[in-house]
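Holo prediction — NAI.
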Amino acid sequence: AGQPFDYRVADLGLAEFGRKEIRLAEQEMPGLMVLRDEFRDTRPLHGARISGSLHMTVQTAVLIETLVALGAEVRWASCNIFSTQDHAAAAVVVGPEGTVDEPRGVPVFAWKGETLQEYWWCTEQMLTWPGATGPTTIVDDGGDATLLVHLGAEYARAGAVPATSPEDSEEFGVLLDVLRRSIAERPDTWTTMADGIRGVTEETTTGVHRLYDLERSGRLLFPAINVNDSVTKSKFDNRYGIRHSLIDGINRATDVLIGGKVAVVCGYGDVGKGCAESLRGQGARVVVTEIDPICALQAVMDGYQVARLEDVVEQADIFVTATGSRDVITADHMARMRHQAIVCNIGHFDNEIDVAGLTAVPGIVRDQVKPQVDEWRFPDGHSVILLSEGRLVNLGNATGHPSFVMSTSFANQVLAQIEVFTKPDQYQRRVYTLPKQLDERIARVHLEALGARLTTLTKSQADYLNLPVDGPYKPDHYRY
Ligand code: NAI
């Protein structure tokens, strides 16, 4: 007998282990479980076809099963070649009620260690709905699914996919190949799909940048909700999640003692703040690099040295990029580093560290220590240890953020999905953030789970501050 549905994961036999970890995670994800309870009967996502491109971890499994509990049909892929937890992927395919022989869960296309060709194949499968034109909504993390649909529709309308140029990254070249093939097979695939999409909800800073670019240039094809800039997302996941998962990645990769070392954190936004605190917590002396004087001043006030990378590159032991920019650490920098300096990136894409440039250094030798840990030996004998080939270290070398903080992020995702799916008339082709009431509500649920007791405004205090007793408590311009 054929499979009841198509999927591709590493090993369905890992499903039982995955299910056990999902069960433990559910207890740690009160935001998602409260939403399951609240919407179990009304099922606001009934009829939704959700395509998700977001790291296929245990926490994401709880998100996926929440979307299903709210009535949606779901297809999923990871948004990074190294970030899938294979046991979580297997458990989602099998589903809470299925068996390995008879999976009854959700089609997942993801495994740890995909090639770039496999990555875009998985993304395409996740967007392709058997018997339907495509998804009704997208959950995106970094914007790759949104990019594929937008470029596909754009090239299909123009009647041609541009030739791959030598300037293009290998990754972009593969994406162009996918579009060339799919448009040749079915010219209207991407335009029809784009027309059917009610909206995308975007998880991360880098994806949000891409969305605002599309909006500004008038090319955004459907409404978008910026989940990242919910306060209960970026001020928690990007910061406290990173504080946990950065050193988790470095430890699992290298087990080097962080105390007493000099660590450079490039970028002092939300993620950089979490990185610096994480490394300082282990006793490292942290140096921050920044381009923005405000963030640089924050770093100084927090007690970190602020310097230029070129001035400290010979003195540091650990380098972390957290900028969302490109070419922050170059091959020239790595040529000047100490022997066995650890180099890693925690920003969304792998171009923060010039890995292509490193590979091209004449006479350089790559020696793989274990998967996602490579020693690159320069001709002069010194080496650098590059983690996850420059892809996000917390998801490549460890398991990403822990459940509790992902519960705050994913509660925003679920509410954003309900918004775009159930209110298609209220959203234009623009980028929106969720209202502050929802943000405060998500925080409230997580406070309760931690046993914290919030103070309630008295009526006279509320009148004095001109605030509703039940919130929202801050104006939209407040920065937290
Ligand atoms: P952000 O915009 O708050 O911070 C980035 C900072 O880098 C800014 O302050 C900017 O001024 C600075 N910067 C830019 N170019 C620089 C350069 N050349 N040198 C030094 N500093 C520079 O962004 P956020 O939220 O901190 O995110 C950073 C990256 O991390 C993004 O790519 C985001 O998508 C990703 N991210 C990764 C997560 C993970 O789990 N690995 C979780 C959340 C976000």
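READOUT: Residues 204-206, 234, 237-238, 266-272, 289-292, 295, 322-325, 328, 346-348, 392, 394, 400 surround NAI (CB under 6 Å).
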